[in-house]
Amino acid sequence: MKPQGAAMLLYNTLGRKKEEFVPIRPGKAVMYVCGITAYDFCHIGHARSAVFFDVLARRLRHLGYDLTFVRNFTDVDDKIIARANRENRDWREVADTYIAAFHEDMGHLKVLPADFEPRATEHILQIQEVCAKLIGNDRAYATPSGDVYFRVRAWPAYGRLSGRGVDELVAGVRVVPGEEKEDPLDFALWKAAKPGEPLWESPWGEGRPGWHIECSAMSEPWLPLDIHGGGQDLIFPHHENEIAQSEAAGCAQLAKYWVHNGFVQINAEKMSKSLGNFTTIRKILEHYQPETLRFFLLGKHYRSPVDFTPQGMDEAEKGLQRIYAALWEARGVLAGDRWKCLDLPGDVRQAWDSLPKAFEEALDDDVNTALALAQIFSQVRLVNRLLEDKNLRTAEGTRTLLAEFVGSALDWEKQLGLFGADPGVFLSELRDMRVKRKNLDVGMVADLLRQREIARAGKDFARSDELRGKLAGLGITVRDTREGQIWDLE
User: Fold this and answer.
1) Is residue 106 in some structural domain?
2) CA atoms of 129 and 123, how far apart (whole Å)
3) 453-454-457-462 Cα dihedral, nearest 10 degrees
4) For the sheet containing 269-270, what is the strand order?
5) Is 141 helix (H, G, I), strand (E, B) or coil?
6) Any residues with CB less than 8 A from the CB of 280 and at least 6 apart, and which?
7) Using an 8 Å Cβ cutoff, are 110 and 291 in contact?
8) What pLDDT, in 10s, does the model give residues 199-240?
9) Does any domain span residue 301?
């Protein structure tokens, strides 16, 4: 039995097709998403994954599912250790620093906290227990040096998620000198201790966990999972190895649905530190509002690649501004106009009534946020049509429609994490950010606008026009409306 009205399709990487979401436990859902390796500030790729799975969680809850959302942290890893050594810091301090930074960044992006956020180092005993099970049934082996490896060829289903055959994988394998693998394909479950690295006691000697095993241990309390998620880069080898470890250790099915978000490129190039195009969330938010970045990321279907460019962010900002401006003007009209007993044209009401359903259908079709936003823009176009028509602007039917439009923003905020700010305040902050990007003095611009407002109130239209000219010289346009002056940058 599923919640009333719920009928959501999700693209399942495992089956390579859209499938109707039917949870394993009626009315409940468990989603586990791979989180960050805590060695640096989060980049835009992290933002994309976090924002999408936040929307998926919001949608599942909106549909009535009792959702348990788990997102882990890798807090011991080669990269964390390398940074700690480079900066002469304790590796735990490095991990704590960037986990705290993650929470701060996600708070700005309105990504809701997960219900559980396990860390790898909190699950050392469980990791060792999984290793022991795998050694006990000959799926894994310990080497004389104290490493533990998974026997890939001993697991016939290996490659099922990624679609890669074992023979195909051999050609791309790199064997590190000194490794004691039985087979080049085998991967580490436990790593023997090296000088200067964190370590824990184990049946195989002092060491630390491999990367893949940690998620098998951390997800164990919630198995089987309804949804396991992450970026497309995790399909192989991380998620492929997770399946092999967990199911070879006795779990009949690690996850029913495997959901992966697409890559982020920077100016049509793959993002990487070596190319110098590595862009952190914090760097982006120096130039754009957090909601602009969230809106930009949701403007593409989550499985499609997204190309991050300043031009793309500028376009996202304009789209966000259009919607907030319509909300701001609709609120002003609702507060001030006297209403006439005049019905709306039938085509307007009919078109309007179809849009909320289309919004819901878009989200139920593999969480198509791009299409859902298109339905919101359709509402904005209809609202603007009514507000621009002198006769229809004060029609009783318009009041009803505007109230529904303003009320819809509460649902958009709940499901998309967008449009929850006060429109007037947000538009002001958005414009201030654009002024800052153009290296204009925000205070000076605000002062000129204030002077013009005073001049108009005193009917000093010559002074008002003079100030308009000064603002135009700075690239700022001003439009006078019944709700006051609206300004923007050209």
Assistant:
1) yes
2) 10
3) -90
4) 269-270, 264-266, 306-308
5) strand
6) 40, 41, 42, 43, 44
7) yes
8) 999 999 999 999 999 999 999 999 999 999 999 999 999 999
9) no
